[in-house]
Fold this sequence. Notes:
Elements: H1 4-34, E1 37-40, E2 45-48, E3 51-59, E4 74-78, E5 81-86, E6 96-103, H2 120-134, E7 140-146, E8 150-157, H3 160-168, H4 178-192, E9 197-204, H5 215-224, E10 227-234, E11 242-250, H6 258-272, E12 279-286, H7 300-308, H8 318-331, E13 340-348, H9 359-369, E14 373-378, H10 386-396, E15 400-403, H11 409-421, H12 427-435, E16 441-444, H13 450-461, E17 464-470, E18 480-487, E19 491-498, H14 509-544
Parallel strand pairs: 6-7, 6-9, 9-10, 10-16, 11-12, 11-13, 13-14, 14-15
Antiparallel strand pairs: 1-3, 2-3, 3-17, 4-5, 4-18, 7-8, 18-19
Amino acid sequence: MNPFPLRSQAIRGTLIFLALLTAFVGSSGKSAEEQLRIEPLDRVDASRFPEITLRFRVVDAQRNPVRHLPPGQFVIYEDGQEVHRFDPQRTTAQPLAVVLTMDTSGSMESGGNPFGRPSKMQAARQAGERFFDRLDPSARSGLVLFHHAPYHRENLTRDRQHLKTLVRQTQAGGGTAYLDAASVSIRMLAEQAADSRRVVVLMTDGRDVNSKLGLDEVIEEARRHETTVYTIGLGEPGRNEWVRTVLVLDRSGSMAGAKIAALHQAARRFVALMSAHHSDTTVLPFHTWPETPGPFTNDRNALYRQIDSLQAFGNTALYDAIYEGLETLNAGRFAEKGPIRRAVVVFTDGADTSSRRNPLEVVARAKAVEVPVYLMGLGSDDEISEPVMKWIAEQTGGEYYRVRSPDDLTPVFEQLSIRLHDDGIDEASLRRLAEETGGAYYHVRDADQLALNFEQVAGELASVYSVTFRSHRARPDGTSRGIEIRLGELVSGHTGYATHGLITPSMNALVYLGLLTVLLVLLAMPGWGRKLLRTSSSISSSENSP
């Protein structure tokens, strides 16, 4: 057997292997930089034209921010013409100031289970701590906590341990007012970090139902103070359905004293946590008989006045009142536009003593009109018919709440209002707030992924480049301008902007007026032609007439 063919095959195989290895090493040696790319973060800011500001970051193939860049300068081109260049190190001269704005509303307590899965509030505490750990050590940071109002503001500091302690101590409760909280954070940064790059990181798990400020107002405030807002939405997107309820409230004689005062406070709390733009309710008081409810409204002051006017009197017509609440909701069904979630909310401190209806009729009617009934019973076992109320709630798809004392009434009304009006996150508003202020929106569906997103935001803040340059075409002529950002020959990114103004030609004024005159003549020629035709036709007709 001749060994040479085998030897030549072995040599050939070795050469192939070495060639592949060389190619792999060569490609891996340059792939790290080739895979980098420049990613513009938001639209170019031309509000101070001809001064233009753009923000971008350098990311790898997995879109992770890159801090250690290849050598070279960033070069900015406008319509192919170089307008600015700078060293990356120059961007670190401006200090960073960040306010973490955290939702601690009652809905944040949900999500946990006995198998170790954290609630949303537990996940937010952990994520907040990791955010401060990951944030650039040189950055000053602050904290704003909110529920139905911003209730704690911690000024900018470098004491991260203090901020982490405050985050660990947060407790869930109340509604959601993230727009008011964002405004507090923006103003804090404007007051305390005028010389810094100002950033608000806002986390919420629900739709804003309690803010006094609107979305457009907060966006305008952020722009005015040159503050970037990053938003994190935790949970499922909401459906933005209207919520309509009837408050069936017991004002029988047994409610006299501390009970009626507690009911005033608790029912007002329910109303305060309603969405100002996506809900309405009416008050249906009852004693020996149900009273006539007013029209559905979301006018909180009008509802407060109705609630505060309730006085204890008479017996308890509980079942008649629930039935009347169902009829009230059903009567308004024909005027509804779009999807609406309905519920009857019932409070009583005693067993029924004067109704004509019975529980079977109540449940049958609730099923027929497809409305759940939520009941709250205040008192001891011998004062309320707890088994019957539980049964009504279960049969109609509602819930039953046992209240041991008047002091516990407000938290129960609060919990129920949040339960009914919480509709998930308002992604459209959160995305607008972020994108129109130069930030980014992050959607976190699972609470246990929240910390990773917080870390991602913290990492991004440390790797964002911001540059301002002067346009090489200083006239606001309404045309679009292309922007290219380059770092050496390997990394580039593209964006653009358009100026506001009339598109006008760049030429000699006399030439422009001459061309305009020709254009006007051409536009007028069809009319002149028709006039000449009519004139010649008229002359011809007169010549042919006898």
